[in-house]
From TrEMBL:
Lineage: Eukaryota, Metazoa, Chordata, Craniata, Vertebrata
Alphabetically ordered keywords of this record: Glycosyltransferase, Signal, Transferase
Protein name, entry field: Alpha-1,3-mannosyl-glycoprotein 4-beta-N-acetylglucosaminyltransferase B-like
PANTHER family associated with the record: ALPHA-1,3-MANNOSYL-GLYCOPROTEIN 4-BETA-N-ACETYLGLUCOSAMINYLTRANSFERASE B (PTHR12062:SF27), N-ACETYLGLUCOSAMINYLTRANSFERASE VI (PTHR12062)
Pfam families in UniProt: MGAT4_cons, MGAT4A_C
Listed GO MF terms: acetylglucosaminyltransferase activity
Length: 530
C-alpha cells in the first residue's frame, strides 16, 4: 500500500511540475486558469489523477482495516463482546474513519483497539433519537443514576422504543466498567433488557500516553490531560453512535432533563423552516444538549481527532463552524452571523447541569443554564374525597394530604417493611383507574421499591370469591385487602376490576426495607361518582 501511495505521489508530482513548467514558459503567472489546449489537458489530467488517488487511498485503507479485523487474535481485549446480533452489527470504528491511525498512530500496534467493548446492549438500531453520555470514575459524587432517572422519567412506551441511550464508560479499568454495568442492571433492568440502555467502553489500548502533552492556553498539565481525553471520549462515542439512529444528542452524566424533552426536540426539528443547520442547541452550557445528524458524526469526530491535543471540545466545535461558514476576507461580525445560521438555539433549555464536582479533580462546576426555567415537581389531579393516613413520617410540609389534593408532593422518610399509605373513602366509590408516580425531576431516586397497590372491596364476599378457592384470581393481603398491582420503575398504574367495585379504600404497602426516602409526585384516582 505504501508503494502505491508513492507511485501516485510521483504521478501527481510529475503532472504538477509539467503544468508549472508549461505555465512559466507560456506567460501565465499562475493566477489565471489555464487557457492553452495543452495546459487545459494537463490540468484536467492532474485533477483526474488527484481524484482517483484519493479514491484509491480510501478504498485501500478500508480493505486494510477489514484484513486487520479478520486477523484479530483470539486473546484480544475484545473477546468479551457478546456474540449474536450485537457482534454482527458491530464494525471497527476505523472503517467509519479510515484516517484514524493518522491522528492516533499509537493504535497501529493493536489492530482491535477501535473495537468498542459492548458490556450491556441488545444492538438496537434504526431509532430517531440517540443520546450519548460519557462517564468517568469520579473522586466525589457520581450523578449517573440520577441523570438516567431524569431522562427516563416520563418517556412514553413509544418514545422508549424509538430511543437508544449509550453510556460510554471512558475508563480502561475492567472492574470499574463492570461495576457501572451492574449498577445500571440493578436500577434499570427493564430498560437494559429492552435495549434502551447500552453500556460501552474503549479498548485498553485506545488512549495515548498523556504525559507527553504540551501545555497550552495557561492550562495546567492535569487540565490539558483532562480536556484531551475528553476530546477522545466524545469522538469515540460519536463514531459508535453513528449507525444507531437519525439524530444524536450529546449529553453529560450530571444533568437533569425537562419533562417532555424527547417529543419537544423531535417536534422542533420537524418544524424547522430550513435544513441548512449543522447542529441544534437545547442547552446553552458547553457541549450539553447539542443535536447532530448522525450522518455528520464521522466528519465531526475526524475534525476533533485532528486537533484533539490542541483545544477543548467546545472550541473545536466552533472552529468547524468557522471553516464551514466564515469568509476570511470579511469581519468577525459577518462570521458570527454566518455561524449563527448553522447552529440554531431552542428556548427554554431542555437540559440543566446539576453536578457540583467536575470530573476534573478539584474543580467545582457551579455553572447553571439560566434558560432552563422552573420545572414542575408534582402533577395535580382532582381526586374523590378521602381520609388519608400513613405510617411514614413526612418531611417538612410535604404531607400526603397536600399531595392528594394537588398542592405539593409527598416526601416520606426511609420506609421499612409493612409501612403503608392509606386512602379511605367515607362512602364506597367506583374507582376505575389509579396512578401513583414516585420521584420527581430533582429527586428521581426517591422511588417506591417492592411496594404493592391494594384495594378493599366494600363487599367482603368479593374478596372470598376472587382470592379463595382452588384457582384464585388475585392474591390477598391482611385486613381484607386484595393485591391488584405494584410499582415498576417508580410507577404504579392500572385499572381496577369491575368485580371489586365499589371499593372502600386503596393502600400502598411496602414489602421490604429501603435505603432511600420515598416521594409521590403524582396521585390520581379516577372515580365514577354520582
Amino acid at each position: 500500500m505504501r508503494l502505491i501511495h508513492i507511485k501516485l505521489g510521483c504521478i501527481l508530482a510529475c503532472a504538477f511540475l509539467s503544468l508549472t513548467w508549461f505555465t512559466a514558459h507560456n506567460g501565465n503567472d499562475g493566477d489565471e486558469p489555464p487557457n492553452h489546449p495543452v495546459m487545459i489537458q494537463l490540468y484536467e489530467r492532474l485533477l483526474a489523477a488527484e481524484f482517483k488517488g484519493e479514491l484509491l487511498s480510501r478504498e485501500l485503507s478500508s480493505v486494510l482495516t477489514s484484513l486487520r479485523n479478520l486477523t484479530i487474535p483470539n486473546n484480544s481485549s475484545s473477546t468479551n463482546i457478546p456474540e449474536g446480533p450485537i457482534k454482527r452489527n458491530l464494525s471497527l470504528l476505523s472503517s467509519r474513519l479510515p484516517n484514524a491511525h493518522l491522528y492516533l498512530p499509537h493504535l497501529r500496534d493493536h489492530p482491535d483497539s477501535l473495537i468498542p467493548n459492548v458490556v450491556l446492549g441488545q444492538g438496537r438500531t434504526g431509532v430517531s433519537l440517540v443520546l450519548g453520555i460519557p462517564t468517568v470514575k469520579r473522586q466525589k459524587q457520581s450523578y449517573l443514576v440520577s441523570t438516567l432517572n431524569s431522562l427516563l422519567y416520563d418517556l412514553s412506551p413509544s418514545e422508549r422504543n424509538d430511543t437508544v441511550i449509550i453510556i460510554f464508560v471512558a475508563e480502561t479499568d475492567a472492574e470499574y466498567v463492570n461495576s457501572v454495568a451492574e449498577l445500571l442492571e440493578k436500577n434499570f433492568p427493564k430498560d437494559v433488557h429492552s435495549g434502551l440502555l447500552e453500556v460501552v467502553s474503549p479498548s485498553q489500548y485506545f488512549y495515548p500516553n498523556f504525559s507527553r502533552l504540551r501545555e497550552t492556553f495557561g492550562d495546567s498539565k492535569e487540565r490539558v490531560k483532562w480536556r484531551t481525553k475528553q476530546n477522545l471520549d466524545y469522538s469515540f462515542l460519536m463514531l459508535y453512535a453513528e449507525e444507531k439512529g437519525t439524530y444524536y444528542v450529546q449529553l453529560e452524566d450530571d444533568i437533569v432533563a425537562n419533562p417532555g424533552y424527547s417529543q419537544t426536540m423531535k417536534t422542533y426539528v420537524r418544524k424547522l423552516a430550513t435544513d441548512d443547520w449543522m447542529f441544534l442547541e437545547f442547552s446553552q452550557l458547553g457541549f450539553i444538549g447539542k443535536m447532530f445528524r448522525a450522518s455528520d458524526l464521522p466528519m465531526i469526530a475526524e475534525f476533533f481527532l485532528m486537533f484533539y491535543k490542541d483545544k477543548p471540545i467546545d472550541w473545536l466545535l466552533d472552529h468547524i463552524l468557522w471553516v464551514k461558514a466564515c469568509n476570511p476576507e470579511k469581519d468577525a461580525k459577518d462570521c458570527n452571523l454566518q455561524k449563527g445560521l448553522l447552529k440554531l438555539r431552542y428556548k427554554p433549555s431542555l437540559f440543566q447541569h446539576v453536578g457540583l464536582h467536575s470530573s476534573l479533580p478539584g474543580k467545582l462546576q457551579k455553572l447553571k443554564d439560566k434558560d432552563f426555567g422552573k420545572v414542575p415537581l408534582f402533577t395535580t389531579h382532582t381526586n374523590p374525597p378521602a381520609e388519608l393516613s400513613s405510617s411514614l413520617k413526612h418531611y417538612q410540609q410535604h404531607t400526603l394530604e397536600r399531595a392528594y389534593n394537588g398542592q405539593d408532593f409527598f416526601w416520606g422518610l426511609t420506609p421499612t417493611a409493612k409501612d403503608f399509605l392509606l386512602l379511605s373513602f367515607p362512602q364506597p366509590h367506583t374507582v376505575t383507574r389509579y396512578l401513583f408516580r414516585s420521584g420527581n425531576i430533582e429527586n428521581n431516586g426517591d422511588h417506591f421499591y417492592n411496594t404493592t397497590v391494594e384495594v378493599l372491596p366494600s363487599d367482603s364476599s368479593v374478596r372470598d370469591r376472587l382470592v379463595g378457592g382452588q384457582s384464585p384470581q388475585y392474591k390477598g393481603s391482611y385486613g381484607g385487602f386484595i393485591v391488584i398491582g405494584c410499582f415498576v420503575d417508580g410507577v404504579a398504574e392500572g385499572q381496577i376490576d369491575a368485580q371489586m367495585q365499589p371499593i372502600s379504600a386503596l393502600r400502598l404497602l411496602v414489602q421490604s426495607d429501603s435505603d432511600m426516602w420515598v416521594l409521590l409526585s403524582e396521585v390520581r384516582c379516577v372515580c365514577v361518582c354520582v
